[in-house]
Amino acid sequence: MVRLFVFLAVGALACLAAAMLWQHRRYLRARRDLVQDRQPLLYPAEVFHVVLFLELAPGRDLFDGVRALRDALEDNPGVQLVYAGKVALNAQPSHQLVEAFGEEVPWDAIVCVQLPSRAVWDRIASSGDLKRAASGFSRTYAHGMKRSALRNLVIPQGLLARRLQQIATRAPSQLPFTPAPKEEWVMPLHAPFARLDAERELGRDAAVVVNLVREGTPEQRAADHRYVDRMFGLMAEVGNGPMHMGRAVTLERDTRYDMVALVYYPGVEYFRRMAESRFYQAILGDKQLGDTQASITVPILGRL
Q: CATH: 1.10.3720.10, 3.40.1090.10, 3.30.70.100, 3.40.50.2000. Which one for 179-303?
């Protein structure tokens, strides 16, 4: 009996380890092949990330501008562009950024840069290297992120645990999505989802929502937790989720956010079907934050 128990326990642990390895490789393939994300999985604690919002200068080409920015930044030792996205839709403009710039800025691209330290970023920003690197853009906004390598490695395993729980409890599937009648829509979004259709080619396999998040009141945080929990369950079922999550670090314009998150979805068509579904419209009212910038992007780093 004891041997049988040990055999079953070892077998269960082996199955769990195999499932965790499969989950890790699954998300790594999505990161590398679909999101075109070049984030190293492990790095020193002092590594610093910067998310750059970019507005294209009149008459300039977006791909040329981002390519020149990448090349100029990566001339600095240890600096690497890990994600680049064309903005398909600035879904939710931040009140803080609107106030800082005096208007809503129609961001055209967003990139995530990894640097050896915060000091390296400060040197690049103060030396004028950033201005020269971003010469193809009329306005930029930089926000820092302290991204824990361990925390980000654990996120896919948390999604795996949620999926195993769903299977064990026979939780009902959210798929396929049921469209919500327009009269049932709860739409605190700044533009219609139909604008995503223009990016079906670049966003066929992946869309990445870039979020700057400022938490609200305790009541808002409790409501937002309900929204995040439901979305986390959907992500566990579908196989998508956060690619970058970290503590926000203010670099300019006295803005204040609590978290930066770049979240992967399997394409703009999927995102639109999800956003227009009864599932999403039923939980959207619980998405309550003090402030947020939410921009839906499509990956372009692999095309530069």
A: 3.30.70.100
